[in-house]
Amino acid sequence: MFTAIVRADTLQATLDSIGVLVDECKIHLTEDGLEIRAVDPANVGMVDLALATDAFESYEADGGLIGVNLVRLQDIAGMASGDDLVHLDLDEETRKLHISIDGLEYTLALIDPESIREEPDLPDLDLSATIVIEGRDIDRAVTAADMVSDHIELGIEENDELFYVAAEGDTDDVHLELGQDDLIDLTVGPASSLFSLDYLQDMNKAIPKGTEVTMELGEEFPVKLHFDFAEGDGTVTYMLAPRIQNN
Amino acid sequence: MFTAIVRADTLQATLDSIGVLVDECKIHLTEDGLEIRAVDPANVGMVDLALATDAFESYEADGGLIGVNLVRLQDIAGMASGDDLVHLDLDEETRKLHISIDGLEYTLALIDPESIREEPDLPDLDLSATIVIEGRDIDRAVTAADMVSDHIELGIEENDELFYVAAEGDTDDVHLELGQDDLIDLTVGPASSLFSLDYLQDMNKAIPKGTEVTMELGEEFPVKLHFDFAEGDGTVTYMLAPRIQNN
Amino acid sequence: MFTAIVRADTLQATLDSIGVLVDECKIHLTEDGLEIRAVDPANVGMVDLALATDAFESYEADGGLIGVNLVRLQDIAGMASGDDLVHLDLDEETRKLHISIDGLEYTLALIDPESIREEPDLPDLDLSATIVIEGRDIDRAVTAADMVSDHIELGIEENDELFYVAAEGDTDDVHLELGQDDLIDLTVGPASSLFSLDYLQDMNKAIPKGTEVTMELGEEFPVKLHFDFAEGDGTVTYMLAPRIQNN
């Protein structure tokens, strides 16, 4: 059983956060809210999202699992304005999701969850550095790096207590250094890893510019990016595997 | 003889209403204003437009007929701002239309009306149901239906006194029901017809979102869509032939 | 030696004015400011730009010459908002330009000036007519002319004291006449020349709509277009060679 009412912008933020990595996903309809974990086809980028019941106008579920076509669901949610209410109702017999927006009813055929790529286990990593940064600074770094390269290095200069972003192209370079004063918070530790810009750009698309993002970094380890949405009732954690540095 | 001055937005609305169906049209320059009737190449969608002399700043005509390239004329009108005045002058000898916008003069070669597809006779249909609806609700219905199908069903549920829109896709469905309270007015009667979404989307493009549209429906009959523009001095009637329902 | 700080919008206007004609250019770093001259590959359009030291927040240079990839530099400048300050520093040893915008550092490899097309000498022409016109009127004329032709005639009707723009297409014509009252200033003289619209459109892109442009015209002679930017501390002169009229 699943029936819920949610603001369109909350639903859109949920779907967009997953949709930058995958086209289909499984959604756990738990008593505490929605839970989604997904990994991209190349096993490089992962996402772990939770949307608590407090993010909903009303919510009732008893632990089911559904598979959805995200692109289709994003199109439907995209028809609503931000503060429109979206009604979601699962018909367990027909395995269809009824979506209703201001009188408009959309019946979405669900996908057999068995046919969707298995959900990843997000490894519990002990990452030595933590950077709390505004979404718009991630955007600037990623956009600038993309002008010169398809890789980006994220790291810490421990002596100067700086977080840095670096991208090296064939002729041009991009470098950004942010200290304690430029960041919301910074916990230094040995950290330096190289990442694919493609993935980071996709994740960047889903990160609101004004949002506080907690980034965890290590030495040639994955990066974790964590942020809240829906006034704190939604949480997203991205994890991106590093590329091997060829120094 | 034809010489007239008209606001750019009035001219643009006129041309756009016809331009969604055809690229060329005949314009009757009557003493009472402009009259245009056209049918698309497949004989499925028709339009009947009248723009009364009151819609013009000044207007003089004595019953001529001209053929115009709508795309070209839309481009020219599109150069003006909404409240710019557009001067139109027909040179009967050269068969050219002089269009002047704030000092800029455009000389448009006319098309021989004989070479343009014959104007349709709009059949006088006795349609049993009348729905008066906002343009934005037509837009919502058409946009949603397009996500799942290339046909759309419009009809009346007589018992519940509802106007409904339905589209059935291979896996997903869209349904919209609007009652007396959701509509500006509703006169029920037996009505249910299937239409091609392509045509309805084209017509929808020309219907202002805030406009009141009168829709007339029957049982497997054409739909008529009627709306005013230019503060009531312009009227547009679209007629769209039904598709055969395969139930 | 070259080190300077400049508002992003001033830098963007500088680069855009040159970038509509060429992809690479030489920049003279004189004591009085930046100087750039360039000609397009077909030798038809030329630009002469100067940006005085007063346009900068700070400026120090001693007469060097650098070659830059304009497209790359436009991309970098485009990352900044209008009133952001852009720091420019030339590393003479590595021949790289360090560009810093709010903490983001971009290292741009310079191009050997010898490898860039030679700078043109702008001929000192004695043009008989001078038209001072708003940028938006040039935009209107060029946009309308483009609907019917790929050439545009600019000239003076001496008897009526009018500046005219004319374009003749296969079927349609465009004509614009502007008198003393429609222009900021007009000095008549024998003038009539035909130009390629492509080039004039490119130049038009770089001319702000609200800017006062001084146009100098002659009989089958090049046209000169002159305007200021950066509150008068920057000046741009375009020169466009005429096409041969086939009357």
Question: What does this entry look like structurally?
Answer:
3 copies of one chain form a homotrimer. The first copy, chain A, contains 4 helices and 18 strands. Chain A has 247 residues and is of the alpha+beta class. The first copy, chain A, has 2 domains: 113 residues, Proliferating Cell Nuclear Antigen (Box), CATH 3.70.10.10; 112 residues, Proliferating Cell Nuclear Antigen (Box). A 9-stranded antiparallel sheet of chain A has the order 6-2-3-4-18-17-16-10-14. A 5-stranded antiparallel sheet of chain A has the order 5-1-7-8-9. In chain A, a hairpin with a 4-residue loop joins strand 7 and strand 8. The model of chain A has no long low-confidence stretch (mean pLDDT 96). Chains A and B meet through helix 2 and strand 9 of A and helix 3 and strand 13 of B. Strand 9 of chain A pairs antiparallel with strand 13 of chain B, so a sheet runs across the interface.
Number of structural domains of chain A: 2
Q: What percentage of amino acids of chain A are in beta strands?
A: over 45%
Q: Nearest-angstrom radius of gyration of chain A?
A: 19 Å
**Overall morphology of chain A:** elongated
Secondary structure topology:
Three copies of one chain form a homotrimer.
Chain A (H helix, E strand, L loop, with lengths): L1 E6 H12 L4 E7 L2 E7 L5 E8 L5 E4 L2 E6 H9 L6 E7 L4 E6 L2 E6 L19 E6 H14 L2 E7 L4 E7 L4 E7 L5 E3 L4 E5 H10 L5 E6 L5 E7 L4 E7 L7
Antiparallel strand pairs in A: 1-5, 1-7, 2-3, 2-6, 3-4, 4-18, 7-8, 8-9, 10-14, 10-16, 11-12, 11-15, 12-13, 16-17, 17-18
Helix pairs in contact in A: 1-2, 3-4
